[in-house]
Amino acid sequence: MLMTRAIGLFAAVLMALPANAETVSGNPGGQIVNFALHVAELRAAEEPVSFDGACDSACTLYLSLPAEQLCVSLHASFGFHLPYGVGARQNVVAANYLISQYPDWVRQWIEEHGGLSHTMMRMGAEEAAKHLPLCGVLA
What residue stretch is flagged as signal peptide (predicted)? Predict the structure, then answer.
């Protein structure tokens, strides 16, 4: 009985998402330029993005999309840290770019948690859901 309800709920959530929705789950990030280009494509196409797991590092650029394009599940989380790996000057440029792209509520949360550092800081779904709709929940 419980399994049947769980499957029914999962199916309802999937049906509430458009067929072309992108789901982000377990994304460790990568090169900021690649994510910036992909986010620009999603913004232009107005494609929805749902978060259903970890979205870390450069992946957090998805949060720069309009809130109407995004939704979070209760399994979502976001990991923030300073960019690294290219060179000191480029890393500063990358960090400034990231911060400039985030919506105000993300920048404020980062600031309240000590700012970006080389240590990953994690925002949970409960915080993100204060600013983004929950996936599969009709308004």
Answer: 1-21
